[in-house]
């Protein structure tokens, strides 16, 4: 507070302006997303909901195996979003080596591993895929990974007694299964394991789940939290018009809009990603850290967060 108080209102306003302008120019121009999990777990639908466009075809459409090792891409707000959808790894189509080599050449900013929450066990195909990915990309892969538990809207207490307890029981089951496999079988340290978000996700008709008010906001924020600063800013930029928080309109307006896209009208794609207080603070805090690290301002890190909250949340 002390430092924030020393700044005049005009200085605060100019700092805020500088920050907004800085990040509106800053994002990297390409974002690589690896989304994987068995066929039919809802990868395509999830990636569409996350990027806000129908980039991936759902269900029915099956492309030939030979093209499956290549990613698909789309330009969103001037950023090339490259989606690595990975059939093959779990489905025994035999393209694994080729696919992994291709992926290794390009690299990726985040891995979203999808498992159906209403499945009752952690399948051996998933275990093998997870092992293969860890062998290819190293244990650090898990520092930029999120596990999405899809079909969470399907979790219902058969006795209709206590939906929350039933849901949390299933969530706990998955946390334990995944943690135990990554720990005992793959040797991932607990420090890393504890930080892997394991996040229920549902459909666009039921955004509220027993564990959270808005699963998409939760998942989107968790993806942001595991990305490095630069990818995180791109993640924000592609969704700047849908992500809502106290000063989001002001921030979104700072971006040059020549390449702004219309929103997708598909009803499977939620129109908004409304952040709660905690999600908003962590978004701003990470952006602010990137701003400070860039050398654009000189303030001791310890005080910057206070300055930030004064700037954005009074
Ligand atoms: N009820 C429900 N259906 C879903 C969910 N996610 C996907 N689906 C449906 O499940 C089918 C397979 O989804 P898709 O995204 O194509 O799976 P993929 O093979 O992993 O890419 C599609 O018909 C989707 O509409 C979900 O969370 N809940
Ligand atoms: Mg698909």
UniProtKB/TrEMBL annotation:
<keyword id="KW-0934">Plastid</keyword>
<dbReference type="InterPro" id="IPR027417">
    <property type="entry name" value="P-loop_NTPase"/>
</dbReference>
<feature type="transmembrane region" description="Helical">
    <location>
        <begin position="290"/>
        <end position="312"/>
    </location>
</feature>
<keyword id="KW-0460">Magnesium</keyword>
<keyword id="KW-0342">GTP-binding</keyword>
<keyword id="KW-0472">Membrane</keyword>
<dbReference type="Pfam" id="PF04548">
    <property type="entry name" value="AIG1"/>
</dbReference>
<keyword id="KW-0813">Transport</keyword>
<keyword id="KW-0547">Nucleotide-binding</keyword>
<keyword id="KW-0653">Protein transport</keyword>
<comment type="similarity">
    <text>Belongs to the TRAFAC class TrmE-Era-EngA-EngB-Septin-like GTPase superfamily. AIG1/Toc34/Toc159-like paraseptin GTPase family. IAN subfamily.</text>
</comment>
<keyword id="KW-0479">Metal-binding</keyword>
<dbReference type="InterPro" id="IPR006703">
    <property type="entry name" value="G_AIG1"/>
</dbReference>
<keyword id="KW-0378">Hydrolase</keyword>
<keyword id="KW-0150">Chloroplast</keyword>
<protein>
    <recommendedName>
        <fullName>AIG1-type G domain-containing protein</fullName>
    </recommendedName>
</protein>
<keyword id="KW-1133">Transmembrane helix</keyword>
<keyword id="KW-1002">Plastid outer membrane</keyword>
<feature type="domain" description="AIG1-type G">
    <location>
        <begin position="28"/>
        <end position="244"/>
    </location>
</feature>
<keyword id="KW-0812">Transmembrane</keyword>
<dbReference type="InterPro" id="IPR045058">
    <property type="entry name" value="GIMA/IAN/Toc"/>
</dbReference>
